[in-house]
Amino acid sequence: MTHATRVTAPRGGSTTETRILVMVGAPGAGKGTQSQRLAARLGLPSVSTGDLFRAALRDDSPLGRSVRPYIERGSLVPDEITVQVIADRLTQPDAAAGIILDGFPRTRAQAAALDELCAERRMSVLAALYIDVELEELVARLGGRQVCGAPESHSFHPRGNPPRVAGRCDVDGTALHEREDDKPATVRARLREQLAPMYEVVDHYNGTGALCTIAGDQPIDEVTRELVRAVERRSARA
Ligand SMILES: [Zn+2]
């Protein structure tokens, strides 16, 4: 099939070739990093809702003006408006081949709203890429930060950035301690709350058949390779 026929003749009722990819993952799962890497490999833009809202604010379009009051108040932008912003972003030339959504949908309602938007455009979410990392691994990644007592609070982490002498600041030699926010119990409790809506999103895409689960406890390059493979498999099937 030539490129021209593909563009002019999407099969009746089926999806077009626009690859809509959704990244799903807990804080600390490496979703942002992998989203950037996938964007580079696939030649698709990776967009977070934060980026989209900032762009909408710069843009004095009706859509930009509808987002502005929420951003300025610091309140949540309603799902219908967020979905409109994404729909608008999909019309940009660089998104003609597809888009990687990093950080949306965050809830089941948002996932359903995105499906509806796609259906209106005879598209569908090609793959929801879930980077699966166990809770205790996330706790280890996100917690455990140690800071010293200096006003600058030099910070260390047992993984990746340990102090030269355990429990002592490399810079000023003062004792290191964990802040309440970084203690495992606090991190675990916070994560449990944050993960509940994410699991609903995972469940949603499991139901639609778009879910691709990638083990997130592997080396970062291997996670990227598996993500690319998952997208290629889904594209071949579409
Ligand atoms: Zn220090």
Account of the protein in words:
There is one protein chain. This protein is of the alpha/beta class. The protein has nine helices and eight strands. A five-stranded parallel beta sheet has the order 2-3-1-4-8, sandwiched between helices. Bound molecules: zinc ion. Zinc ion binds next to loops.
Class of the domain at 17-134 and 196-237, according to the CATH hierarchy? Alpha Beta
| Strand residue percentage | 5-15%
CATH topology of the domain at 17-134 and 196-237: Rossmann fold
Round the mean pLDDT to the nearest integer and report it: 89
Overall strand count: 8
Low-confidence stretches: 1-16
Could you give the order of the helices and strands? HEHEHHHEHEHEEEHEH
Helix content: 40-55%
Question: What is this structure's SSE topology?
Answer:
Blueprint: H1 3-8, E1 19-25, H2 31-42, E2 46-48, H3 49-58, H4 62-73, H5 79-90, E3 98-102, H6 108-120, E4 125-132, H7 135-142, E5 146-147, E6 155-156, E7 177-178, H8 184-208, E8 211-215, H9 220-237
The structure holds zinc ion.
Zinc ion (ZN) is lined by residues 148, 150, 154, 169, 171-172, 174.
Short description:
The protein has 238 residues and is α/β, with parallel strands linked by helices. Helices cover 49% and strands 14% of the residues. Residues 1-16 have low confidence and may be disordered.
What would the keywords be for this entry?
238 residues; alpha/beta; Rossmann fold; 3-stranded antiparallel beta sheet; 9 helices; 49% helix; binds zinc ion
